[in-house]
């Protein structure tokens, strides 16, 4: 059953993105994942409060694959890099069905 990694980012300094994006995309693909949503082109239809700068939704074949990507030793430096310029909330959700 598919699983989704959902990220909500508040970007404070975008300098990390150029290095982070291609390396992270390769690691997502290595674990059987793909990007469904990535960026700042979204519209709030409910709720209040400060919106994020960007939203990311990744699809993986299983929860285990999503967790394997997030804990991959090659990804850990990318997490550290992202944290230099963004505050992030990230969630793994199992798909319905």
Compact description:
The chain has 97 residues and is of the alpha+beta class. The protein has helices spanning 17-30, 63-71, 76-83; strands at 3-11, 34-39, 54-60, 86-94.
Helix and strand topology:
Blueprint (H helix, E strand, L loop, with lengths): L2 E9 L5 H14 L3 E6 L14 E7 L2 H9 L4 H8 L2 E9 L3
Antiparallel strand pairs: 1-3, 1-4, 2-3
Question: What structural keywords apply?
Answer:
four-stranded antiparallel beta sheet; 97 residues; Alpha-Beta Plaits; alpha+beta; 32% strand
Overview of this protein structure:
This protein has helices at residues 17-30, 63-71, 76-83, and strands at 3-11, 34-39, 54-60, 86-94. With 97 residues, the protein is α+β, with helices and mostly antiparallel strands. The chain has one domain (3-41, 52-94): Alpha-Beta Plaits (2-Layer Sandwich), CATH 3.30.70. The chain is globular and about 30 Å long.
CATH class term? Alpha Beta
Structural class: alpha+beta
Work out the count of structural domains: 1
Q: How far apart lie the N and C ends?
A: 7 Å
| CA radius of gyration | 13 Å
Physical arrangement of strands within the biggest beta sheet? 2-3-1-4
- Beta-strand residue fraction: 25-35%
Mind describing the biggest β-sheet? Answer: 4 strands, antiparallel
Q: How would you spell out the order of helices and strands?
A: EHEEHHE
By CATH, the architecture is named 2-Layer Sandwich
Which consecutive residue ranges, at least 5 long each, have pLDDT under 50?
none
* Global shape: globular
Predict the CATH topology: Alpha-Beta Plaits
Helix share, percent: 25-40%
Count of helical regions: 3
Mean pLDDT: 97
The counted number of beta strands is 4
């Amino acid at each position: 059953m598919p699983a989704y990694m959902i990220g909500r980012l508040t970007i404070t300094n975008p300098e990390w993105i150029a290095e982070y994006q291609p390396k992270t995309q390769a690691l997502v693909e290595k674990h059987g994942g793909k990007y469904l949503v990535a960026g700042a082109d979204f519209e709030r239809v409910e709720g209040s409060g400060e919106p994020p700068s960007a939203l990311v939704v990744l699809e993986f074949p299983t929860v285990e694959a999503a967790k394997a990507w997030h804990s991959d030793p090659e990804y850990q430096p990318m997490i550290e890099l992202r944290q230099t310029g963004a505050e992030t909330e990230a969630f793994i959700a199992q798909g319905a069905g």
